[in-house]
């Protein structure tokens, strides 16, 4: 890659550098606002997040770099069927509404720090709590790794190779670690405010520019139909089953991201959380839908790209337009800033959540003599150690372990029955809930990798997500086992 | 009440899938199933926002405190 191919000029790099310095400033402000050296203060911002900060931290966390890069690319390749992304992002908030009001109340009453604290409180099983925690840690670790690789490629691309992949990953990881160590969730949430605003404004401006610079809605669809007539084909039963199972698995999986659950704990009060969700319900229409539309415009205007090329479709279109209208260079800077914001806000939240689960769920039970200040310090060391490991993996591994991230939400959604039913169903029993979860996890792995071992195992049973079939079995064990146990105890 | 609202949300979630509008017809230049899915997402968000506004406190209560569930 040569320096002449840099997407950002000196002015653009200065703008991004200013943004990064602002993140460090917000991290320092987070430290100044610290009230005590405790896990609740460090990992949950003292349970004091107000409406605006809560809304924007929920938003910045839920929408990652994948929203800006992956969603447009997938819409480019798949056409209108990728509207499933809009439906599952609205589904996420709906699922959260089913459990968040009660969980927020319980978390304030009982001092929960992590999702496993609720599992421990509800089911009184250290084993079950540890299993939930470990599955969350594994899913989030890979999330951090793939996002770090994403940021490395972004830095290399926008600087035309002036800054290497490895330097970009190391530099931005250190920035994340500094502001996160300074103030924990308080710093992360405040940086999320800046990142969320950039992400939202970025999506709106990019959509508007691309829509109006090309042919407008009607013209776009006419050209698109000429280029990609297959987007207009009727849906088959197979398509519909895949759509429905994707909707359930992804809505349920994202709804219980550990870092999303911890933001429920961090809300100042129930009304603040309620107001934040009322806004969150409509943000898929202002973010996901716009990037999906950008992907369709790309398919009409720049046809013939492969998978890798289609992932850069937004940048390609902005580059093309800025040659015609030089003033649009500023939109490219905004897009790059939005990509950095989306990725960094995801990495910092996931890393903080992993650190909290290791400290609270795995270290604390084995070392009950440690006080809160010492545990907080251990949590910070864990963050640095984990980030070091992930940076090493991102730089040294040729490919991300995509095989794992592909089943991330399918693994996470297996905890949904225990959380959702555990909150609302008093007679739900520990054994069935735990075994339902374990069998669900094993089935996800079985469907995902069994097909690679033998032709007899379908990776998509009944043309649906393997994770969906696993969830159904999980629910049957959880509900059936609890009902059977109830009947047995009534008889006795 | 909570069970009924929960079941309603799951049913509405699945109704966003264009089960009955998967054919070849077009509306506004796009397949009718795409228009259905988009309209479904808007309607779904609106109904869930009503439920959040109206029933949040009920969902926050202890399950034992609610008779009839």
Oligomer: heterodimer
Number of strands of chain A: 0
Task: Work out the count of structural domains of chain A.
Answer: 2
- Largest sheet geometry of chain B: 2 strands, antiparallel
Inertia-based shape of chain A: globular
Gyration radius from CA atoms of chain A, angstroms: 23 Å
Average pLDDT score of chain A: 89
Roughly what is the average pLDDT of chain B, rounded to an integer? 89
Spatial gap, N to C terminus of chain A: 75 Å
| Tertiary shape of chain B | elongated
Q: Please tally the helical runs of chain B, counting DSSP H or I stretches of 4 or more residues.
A: 2
CATH topology of the largest domain in chain A: Sodium/glucose cotransporter
Order of helices and strands of chain A: HHHHHHHHHHHHHHHHHHHHHHHH
Low-confidence stretches of chain A: none
Characterization of this structure:
- The complex is a heterodimer of chains A (492) and B (69).
- By secondary structure, chain A is an all-alpha fold.
- Helix content of chain A is 78%, strand content 0%.
- Chain A has two domains: 3-405, Sodium/glucose cotransporter; 425-492, no CATH class.
- Chain A has helices at 10-32, 39-44, 51-62, 65-68, 70-78, 84-110, 115-123, 126-158, 165-213, 216-227, 237-255, 258-266, 270-280, 283-286, 288-301, 307-310, 313-324, 329-363, 372-396, 402-405, 408-412, 416-424, 430-453, 466-491.
- In chain A, helix 6 (84-110) packs across helix 12 (258-266).
- Chain B has 69 residues and is mainly alpha-helical.
- Chain B has a domain at 30-63.
- Helix content of chain B is 62%, strand content 6%.
- Chain B is elongated.
- The model of chain B has no long low-confidence stretch (mean pLDDT 89).
- At the A-B interface, helix 6, helix 10, helix 11 and helix 13 of A face helix 1, strand 2 and helix 2 of B.
